[in-house]
Amino acid sequence: MELKKQGNLIVICGPSAVGKGTICKEFLKTNKDIKLSVSATTRKPREGEINGVNYYFLDKEDFLNKIENDEFLEYATVYDNCYGTPKGPVLENLKQGYDVLLEIDIQGAMQVKEKYPKGVFVFILPPTLKELENRIRNRGTESKEDMEKRLGCAQDEILQVEKYDYFIVNDDLVEATKKLNAIILAEQNSVKKYKKNIIDKFSKEEF
Amino acid sequence: MELKKQGNLIVICGPSAVGKGTICKEFLKTNKDIKLSVSATTRKPREGEINGVNYYFLDKEDFLNKIENDEFLEYATVYDNCYGTPKGPVLENLKQGYDVLLEIDIQGAMQVKEKYPKGVFVFILPPTLKELENRIRNRGTESKEDMEKRLGCAQDEILQVEKYDYFIVNDDLVEATKKLNAIILAEQNSVKKYKKNIIDKFSKEEF
């Protein structure tokens, strides 16, 4: 049976250094039919970066126009450059029935939730804050003060977990990826989302 | 990280002959840590049936006492025999953190939903009513009238799908079992269910 379905927007979020990028990369290796959302930015392309693949490269005027016209699911300014998630390609993919994966920080995720509450919001947790500290340290040296600030921030973010639908503890990449797969497959079989299609199909069928 | 968790009660339901028993059997082959709920009955044990494994065999007085004491998640009388799902073993397994699988007809499922709304209710759908008709026919001959009655009944049941959390179209046993696995794993990672545990753990952690 083919139930005609709209895709799901899967938003992957979590504190910095928790490993959400690694999980998404691993997940996409074996899920070729899931679309990764491509961000827009006003920063200049680096060598090898392709427009529409790594980013949509826009000039500042274009970007500001798109903000004006409500064409972003979320956006932010980081050190004079703008970054955002263009709404159009995401909605088009969902309409065509593709699931779309969006990896994003916590401020961005909350903006997306406002504009697209039907999304599936997944929060990646570290096994412990101590382990998150190790991961941050491995990314580069940080002063004791910076580290405490970052961990305090991560703790605050984790305590907001109730704004999300699912959590995944990233203690093992294979297990974490398996859980992400399960969440996406379960959501494809959610009655709440697809009951109209089921009822339409079976109410019309004759026997 | 070990989040201390309560197990989930997974209720598998669907029209007669849709194949829910086959899915459960296939599922349990590779999920040894999931407990299958054992029914109680007043009918006599058949050869080879073991008390506590195939059924809890009770005499009628015991059964009626247990109804009186609200010790069933659901019960029904079929041709003079009583059948029911004893609450005690299910709740004990859930408390110990085990997921419990309960395969049941639609009347039973709705009784369980009233007594244990936290359960995860999964409805198994046939690919089409035509295909359900074939499956019923393969189980034995039925008169044209009986068949129409059964299919009409199945259609009514399917149109009540919104009372369930998930649906699984049983067009392929491997795929259907995979979906059941995904639903159970996703539910183990539901924020709604486990947010208290997450917040408890991370609010106490020092860094």
Q: By CATH's scheme, which homologous superfamily of the largest domain in chain A applies?
A: P-loop containing nucleotide triphosphate hydrolases
Average pLDDT rating of chain A: 93
Proportion of residues in β-strands of chain A: 15-25%
Q: Between the first and last Cα atoms of chain A, what is the distance in angstroms? A: 16 Å
CATH architecture of the largest domain in chain A: 3-Layer(aba) Sandwich
Count of helical stretches of chain A: 8
Q: Strand-and-helix sequence of chain A, N→C?
A: EHEEEHEEHEHEHHEHH
Count of β-strands of chain A: 9
Shape of chain A: globular
How many structural units, i.e. domains of chain A? 2
The first-level CATH class of the largest domain in chain A is given as Alpha Beta
The secondary structure category of chain A is: alpha/beta
Taking the sheet with the most strands of chain A, its summary is: 5 strands, parallel
